[in-house]
Write a structure and sequence with these properties.
With about 170 residues, the chain is of the alpha+beta class. It has two helices and eleven strands. A hairpin with an 8-residue loop joins strand 1 and strand 2. It is rod-shaped and about 115 Å long.
Amino acid sequence: MSDRLTSNARYNLIIIARALFDAMRFTMRFIWQSLVLSFVVIFGSSLFWLPVALADSQVDEIKVSLGNSSGELKFFPSNIELEAGKPYKLLLNNPSPEKHYFTSKDFADASWTRKVQAGKVEVKGAIHELELKPGAEAEWVITPMKAGTYELHCSIKGHAPAGMVGEIVVTN
């Protein structure tokens, strides 16, 4: 009878050992999957934001004045050269004593606007022209998508015929 108990005890020990081994294997698999998932979430999300961070650091800035303090009706510079597919930050200001518009509808239609920022206001979406009142400043973060030569003008009556015109040239 003692041999029988011994063989039953051995059988029970084998069952318990297998159960412990299966539990350890399940636990190790769970830990491994958790580590892989954590790695994917942490590094995957940082890779998602990396292009945005790089894009911010690689944006060329172009300063454009709408008129000047002596009231000349001109854009400074009046000819802007850009490259298709490359992001730019147009730093617009109006040092003149009257309001002006930065208008280039065809250019705006052929470009992707990331944002327009003026003071604490940020505007996103389709932009066709910007109005700058005396002393105002605005940033237009834009990526031209289509090569071409686009007309730039101030849409206030009489300003374009008086010389407030220019060109935006986008090359490939």
